[in-house]
User: Which sequence fits this backbone?
């Protein structure tokens, strides 16, 4: 009888040992498998605290931390590729050398994206697109805005009818600071910017009483989304992550001192 129990114990031990070895082999295999890496084309622009490129060329800010948290949850790695806005569109839409683009929005440059099988995530952040003017011009009609300044590569789609009609000319610059300076020198009539990000800059420059947002001129919500031509399934996972990680997003906004409500 004891011999029977001994054989059963040995067999059970062998099975358990085999299971343990199988789990160990599976764990080792998972560790040896390379982490899937994806490229995200991002704007080489300073829109802090939302996003910016630091002195070492590293993409930083709220968006970086949020996307990195999602990547960790998915077990993948994101490589951020900062590019000037026009080259970013070229690399993403035409050359198609990037897996994802941020920020993106289906309203931007519709002719360039027409016919492409693009997928978009839910908004990672919502702002207001609108006009900044000198205080003495606040409340003036849109017809007085003939010289519109904006960041290079931005699409002032809210005023496309006036631009197409020749009633409004667009002047681009790579620096928000320089645009504000041109507005103060009366070289521009208004600035088309992300108002929620531009107003803190105006305050830091000590110009809060001089350069103001004009809510009486056309403005609209501006959704910052992630887009892809190649990996729509990962954007679905990102949408679920954004729905489920509300507290994480709130904590990251607090860390980066990011406005939680947009200007109206």
Assistant:
């Amino acid at each position: 009888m004891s011999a029977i129990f001994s054989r059963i114990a040995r067999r059970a031990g062998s099975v358990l040992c085999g299971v343990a070895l199988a789990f160990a082999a599976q764990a080792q295999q998972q560790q040896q498998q390379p982490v899937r890496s994806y490229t995200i084309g991002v704007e080489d622009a300073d829109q802090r605290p939302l996003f910016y490129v630091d002195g070492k060329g590293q993409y930083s800010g709220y968006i970086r931390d949020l996307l990195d948290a999602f990547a960790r949850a998915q077990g993948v790695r994101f490589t951020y590729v900062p590019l000037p806005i026009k080259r970013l569109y070229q690399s993403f839409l035409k050359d198609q050398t990037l897996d994802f683009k941020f920020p993106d929005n289906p309203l931007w440059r519709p002719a360039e994206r027409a016919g492409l099988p693009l997928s978009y995530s839910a908004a990672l952040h919502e702002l207001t697109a609108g006009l900044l003017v000198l205080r003495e011009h606040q409340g003036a009609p849109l017809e007085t805005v003939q010289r519109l300044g904006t960041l290079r590569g931005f699409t002032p789609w809210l005023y496309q009818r006036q631009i197409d009609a020749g009633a409004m000319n667009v002047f681009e610059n790579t620096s928000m600071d320089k645009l504000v300076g041109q507005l103060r020198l009366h070289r521009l009539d208004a600035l088309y910017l992300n108002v929620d990000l531009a107003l803190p800059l105006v305050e830091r420059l000590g110009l809060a009483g001089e350069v103001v947002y004009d809510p009486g001129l056309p403005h609209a919500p501006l959704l910052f989304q992630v887009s892809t031509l190649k990996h729509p399934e990962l954007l679905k996972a990102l949408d679920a992550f954004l729905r489920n990680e509300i507290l994480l997003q709130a904590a990251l906004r607090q860390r980066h001192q990011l406005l939680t409500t947009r200007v109206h």
User: Anything to note?
Assistant: Residues 1-5, 15-23 have pLDDT under 50 and may be disordered. The CA atoms of residues 5 and 227 lie 63 Å apart. The radius of gyration is 26 Å.
